[in-house]
Design goal:
The chain is mostly helical and 70 residues long. It has one domain. Helix content is 79%, strand content 0%. The protein contains two helices and no strands. The longest helix has 30 residues. The protein is elongated. The relative contact order is 0.12.
Length: 70
């Protein structure tokens, strides 16, 4: 396999893996453990979850930007 094709496929697989890992962790914390569900009022756990969700999304998008800008 050519080096350029191999490098491109590695980028695609890394993007897919980190995106699915981010999604799975946030679904686990938000829906399964219930930190993303607001019942009756906003709790400290909800705020912490949504803060983590937002910051980790920004980190993932920054990682994608750094990976694909080359």
């Amino acid at each position: 396999m050519e080096p350029d094709v191999k490098k491109y496929l590695r980028k695609v697989l890394n993007s897919l893996f980190y995106g699915l890992l981010w999604l799975a962790l946030n679904v686990l914390a938000g829906l399964y453990w219930g930190y993303g569900i607001i019942d009756g009022g906003l709790s400290v756990y909800n705020v912490l979850f949504f803060t983590f969700f937002s910051l980790s999304l920004l980190g993932l998008l920054y990682y994608y930007y750094r990976l694909w800008r080359k």
